TrEMBL record:
Keywords per UniProt: ATP-binding, Nucleotide-binding
Entry-linked SUPFAM superfamilies: P-loop containing nucleoside triphosphate hydrolases, post-AAA+ oligomerization domain-like
Pfam name, any one: MgsA_C
UniProt cross-references to Gene3D superfamilies, sorted A to Z: 1.10.8.60, 1.20.272.10, DNA polymerase III clamp loader subunits, C-terminal domain (1.10.3710.10), P-loop containing nucleotide triphosphate hydrolases (3.40.50.300)
Keyword Nucleotide-binding included in the entry's annotation: yes
Protein name stated in the entry: Replication-associated recombination protein A
Length: 428
């Protein structure tokens, strides 16, 4: 009887047993060849939970036959790091696997980094957070490889499940289990690319199944029931959450309704309604903008309704907002215009405000020359309202143009007005 979970027992013993991640550790990769020949570089492993970061570290250690020590940065202190350093002095070289490496503090770094730099400690760090955002530069600079792992494909998980069913030492091979190929495939496709969840689910299914004449009989309804209780990968603060927000915005920008709704559903299942509402409102003005100016107020109303309703009803107004944004005409001209103006200011391309535009609501303004402003409303121009031909930008940048209209949707009409006003100015 095993005490350890199946997912722990089935960790690969060497790099040939690694499921998936062939872009990193496939036989035609440089990393595979280096490790096979005994050279293990320090590296960072980045990816979502359950996709094999820890397993890959154990597999590398198993192939290299180097002493292996695993620590978690959230609970390890300076004493733990000093023990690793002491082990390295005795053995000559040791692999340190440091999970949650983005939580590594400066005191631990100061103790460890010199030994990583000279090669007596091979550091394999694992993180679910973007290492370029959350891992200390001192650590990154000493890790020659920053490897991003992907969720496993169903075919990879099928191999992993079948291996667990057949392995008599570490897996379930000593049991008689009645499970067919379609049931294995259903597990593989129902865990969102998470190897740990696949093996945990398999173990739960076997333990919950009935036995008949010494054989475990797995039923489809039980698989469906347990798959339905598996949570999504990600949380409100992790990198995956921000990747989902990014994917949602890019799908709306690309007018892909189905992808946008999919990422919206993922985000709502994670549960951060405020962050989703905020991003949707930004998108309405950043990506739809002047091409469909009515969309902004629509999205504001939808997000306010969603916050007031709460989940699960909040999904309804937000789905309306996402689909409307996907199918709306799009323009980013407004935010590009203000960004261009900010850049000009930061580059020193500015000047004095023209005298006739300065404040005159005080005695003595005329003595300072703050006069000459002409009130546009006093000069009607067709159905446009009022307009006069006078200078508004400082002299040094009076010819600057920050706004470049996009000829889409309602902005096509606005662009026509903009171009006509430019022609009027040239007649001055």
């Amino acid at each position: 009887m095993h005490n350890e979970p199946l997912a722990f027992r089935m960790r690969p013993k060497n790099i040939d047993e690694v499921a998936g991640q062939q872009h990193i550790i496939g036989k035609d990769t440089a990393l595979y060849r280096m490790i096979s020949k005994g050279h293990v570089p320090s590296m960072l492993l980045y990816g979502e939970p359950g996709i094999g970061k820890t397993s890959l570290a154990y597999a590398i250690a198993g192939t290299s036959h180097l002493p292996f020590i695993a620590l978690n940065a959230t609970v390890s202190g300076k004493k733990d790091v000093e023990q690793v350093v002491a082990e390295a002095r005795i053995t000559g070289k040791v692999i340190l696997f440091l999970d949650e490496i983005h939580r590594f503090n400066k005191l631990q770094q100061d103790t460890l980094l010199p030994h990583v730099e000279k090669g007596s400690i091979v550091l394999i760090g694992a993180t679910t957070e973007n290492p370029f955002h959350d891992v200390n530069p001192a650590i990154r600079s000493r890790c020659g490889e920053i490897l991003q792992l992907n969720r496993l494909e169903p075919d990879d998980l099928v191999v992993l499940i079948e291996r667990a069913l057949l392995d008599e030492d570490r897996g379930l091979g000593k049991m008689k289990i009645g499970m067919n190929d379609s049931q294995i495939r259903k597990i593989a496709e129902g865990v969102n690319g998470d190897a740990r969840k696949a093996l945990t689910l398999l173990e739960s299914i076997i333990s919950a199944s009935d036995e008949e004449e010494g054989k475990v009989i797995v039923e489809d309804w039980l698989i469906d029931n347990l798959i339905g209780r598996i949570g999504l990968v990600g949380d409100k603060k992790g990198s995956h959450h921000y990747n989902l927000l990014s994917a949602l915005q890019k799908s709306v920008r690309g007018s892909d309704v189905n992808a946008a709704i999919f990422y919206l559903a993922n985000l709502l299942e994670i549960g951060d309604l405020i962050a989703v509402s905020r991003r949707l409102l930004v998108m309405a003005y950043e990506d739809i903008g002047l091409a469909a100016p009515e969309v902004g107020p629509h999205v504001l109303a939808a997000t306010e309704a969603a916050v007031r309703l709460g989940m699960p009803e909040a999904r309804i107004p937000l789905a309306n907002a996402v689909i409307e944004m996907c199918l709306a005409s799009k323009s980013n001209s407004a935010y590009k215009a203000v960004d261009a103006a900010v850049k000009a200011i930061n580059d020193g391309k500015t000047g004095d405000i023209p005298l006739h535009l300065r404040d005159t609501h005080y005695a003595g303004a005329a003595e300072l020359g703050h006069e000459g402003y002409r009130y546009p409303h006093d000069t009607p121009i067709g159905t446009f309202g009022g307009w006069v031909n006078q200078q508004y930008l400082p002299d040094k940048i009076k010819q600057a143009e920050f706004y470049e209209p996009v000829h889409a949707g309602e902005e096509k009409r606005l662009a026509g007005i903009y171009e006509r006003l430019k022609e009027f100015r040239k007649e001055k």
